Amino acid sequence: MKNPFNHDHPPADTPLVNVQIDGVWTQMPKGLNAVEAARRVGKFIPHYCYHPKLAIVGNCRMCLIETGGPKMDASRAPVLDASGKPEINWVPRPAIGCATNLTEGMAIRTDSPLVQECRRGVMEFLLINHPLDCPICDQAGECKLQEYSVQYGNDHSRFVEEKVKKPKRVDIGERIVLDDERCIMCSRCIRFAKDTVHDDVLGFTERGSHTTLAVHPGQRFDNNYSLNTVDICPVGALTSKDFRFQMRVWFLKETKGICTNCATGCNTIIGSRESTLYRMTPRENEAVNSEWMCDQGRLGFHYIHDPKRLTQPIARHGPETTPLAWSEIIPQVAERLRQFVPEQIGIVASGRLTNEEAFLVAEIRRVLGGDSVLTDYVPRFGRADGILRSADLNPNTHGVTLMGLSNGGASLADLRRSIDAGQIRALVVLHEDLTAEAGWDGATLQKLDLLVTLGLLQNPTTDRADFILPGASFAEKRGSMINGAGRLQRLNRAIPSPGQAWDDWQILLRLKEALGGGNGLHTIEEVFKAMAAQVPAFAGLTLSRIGDLGIELEAAMPKETATE
Amino acid sequence: MSNPRAVDPATQLVEPEHAFPVSEAHGALVTFPTGFEAKCDELITHYPVSKRSASLPLLHLWQETFGHISPQGIEWIAAKLDLQPINILELVTFYPMFRQHPIGRIQIKVCRTLSCALAGSYKLCDHFRERCGTATSDAHGIASSPEGKYAVEFVECIASCGTAPVIMINDDFHEAVTLQRADELLGKYD
């Protein structure tokens, strides 16, 4: 992800300058702004309009600080204090931190009495026209106005005049609602729309005391990245239609995840409460998605709570179905699979499997007959958008390929022909619907003597299946995936699986044990270790070593970037 | 039947309020007089560093030519300068002297500042409004007559304090205007 601005990450070769921050001398890259400089030494300068990835406009005035430079004597040499450090000449008026770029000898004060006084004044102005309806505002709990008012503002209001009225609940886009009275005119959304996604439809009309954030008449703020403005809006002016009024944010448990809607693998924060996933927001990872994600990916999780979700292992005998316990169904599946010779078995894997799951599928395949078992995955392609969307809509194509389960989709047709011809009589389908998604017709599936499906949702393939194994969604399991650019990243478990649905790796591991005996693997960490021992690309790695931000795999990966 | 979800009017979404009225009259497309586009192109050459700087001159030219700035004007100027329409709309809604709707053909500006006020400009303005039959003022403080002939505006100083009260009719300047003189002047413009 290429941002138009990266104020927090100046080029590595930027020379260092000596600066004094709150009395302590340190070295910082030249030109770094004061907000970022303070952040690097653990100081926080509050701000609204400044964002490290957006153009600097300096309109909120919240980041006011004191600045100074070395005091010079008559010969233009710096005056040194007792410790040999330059004495500072302080500028008598404050300056905004976001547009103060460090130079040699510069000094800043981030929390002096003057700075505190400035913040109190700015907060008072910002609150003049802001509605005091926090109890019914969906931003409450993650509102910067609320937070800074407590930390830096006044404890009472002196305002007795009438507040300015502005449009409320304005429908500016398919996924976004605008409340103009809550807007503090920071213009982050305007700059994001213009510079980052090149969809310049937002602006301020009626500038003055009635400044109104507006979308141009007749246009809509509908681009595929529009919901990022909800994240960067410091107040409750922009809210997501999907999430607003669904759950108070302080009830949400936050789990680090990755988006599985395409091969980019944007890093996310999964917001869940009890067993329900309420929202996904982007998590900063400069190597992948920076601080953004697309709306498609962000909202593409609702299927996991679909009424069609499979929650019970089921065996079918003719027209009758029997719910079974896992301990019963797995031996039955193994027993049935054993009745076929390798050439009679096919496996349809999926680019949605984690590496661990794909590894276990490969193990099962080896037990069933190795290369004689015709296997492929279902490729899925869309269009890359040059920002974050990848053309590959499978999150882990590299992983299934690495485990030898993929022939790029070329063997799918062979598989289908072999089934039609009666050569392949047993099929194991993992997280795929062969009818709607792979385009097979139901007649092919009817020819099979045994169809085993592992997946999330009821579909025409599971309707035909002899064994239905309900698996776990991306938010319900641990494991790893390799994104399109060859980065190994980790999934984490945010919510429990519904009903009897089970972690896929558990199901696959038990099935493998039932088929070929146990091999001492009991945890996902052990599965990863076993995989790392066999797959050179993972040599020396463990699940925990992947870390929250993932790691670039050293081994030669077919390189593909999201922007291609 | 399942219980339909109660609709709370407080959570109903509203259509965006348009910064200009999108009616047929205002949305009617104008045809350009000869030389209009050439004049625009010439104005743009005054700003070699950034075409965007020509936004205001083009808006002035549009208003002088067509009387007000229509949605067509906003979109045409934006396209001309490689900008988005919202960039131009921001300017149009900021400057009070840009109008987004038509006003009377004959524009009468009566000075309201100190010298003129002392010399009876309030009475003079009321007189004009009465004689022209203008309705209440719009958001820009301009009162137009219903048939679209006159527009009367009470404006700040137009810089001839020694000869108060002063008025402007279109681009013509008139000094020491008495009520009688006002009637005579009205007769001269048609």
Give the CATH topology of the domain at 314-552 in chain A.
Rossmann fold
What portion of the residues of chain A fall into strands of 2 or more residues?
15-25%
Report the C-alpha radius of gyration of chain B, rounded: 21 Å
* CATH architecture classification name of the domain at 314-552 in chain A: 3-Layer(aba) Sandwich
**What's the total number of strands of chain B?**
5
**What percent of residues of chain B are in strands?**
5-15%
Task: Quickly name the level 1 CATH class of the largest domain in chain B.
Answer: Alpha Beta
> What is the helix content of chain A?
10-25%
- How would a crystallographer describe the biggest sheet of chain A? 7 strands, mixed
Tell me the count of domains of chain B. 2
| Order of the strands making up the biggest sheet of chain A | 16-15-21-20-19-17-18
**Which whole number gives the mean pLDDT of chain A?**
94
Task: State Rg of chain A.
Answer: 29 Å
Oligomeric composition of the shown chains: heterodimer
- Approximate shape of chain A: elongated
**Main structural class of chain B:** alpha+beta
CATH topology of the largest domain in chain B: the name is Glutaredoxin
Instruction: Note the gap between the termini of chain B.
Output: 69 Å
Tally of contiguous helical segments of chain A: 14
Describe the structure.
The complex is a heterodimer of chains A (564) and B (190). Chain A is built from 14 helices and 24 strands. By secondary structure, chain A is an alpha+beta fold. Among the domains of chain A are: 16-121, Ubiquitin-like (UB roll), CATH 3.10.20.740; 314-552, Rossmann fold. In chain A, the strands form six sheets. A seven-stranded mixed beta sheet of chain A has the order 16-15-21-20-19-17-18, sandwiched between helices. In chain A, strands 1, 2, 3, 4, 5 and 6 form a six-stranded mixed beta sheet that branches. In chain A, β1 (16-21) and β2 (24-29) form a beta hairpin. Chain B has two domains: 24-94, Arc Repressor Mutant, subunit A (Orthogonal Bundle), CATH 1.10.10; 106-188, Glutaredoxin, CATH 3.40.30.10. Chain B has helices spanning 24-27, 36-44, 55-66, 71-80, 85-94, 114-118, 121-132, 179-188, and strands at residues 106-111, 142-144, 150-155, 167-169, 172-174. In chain B, β2 and β3 (150-155) form a beta hairpin. The longest helix of chain B has 12 residues, at 55-66.
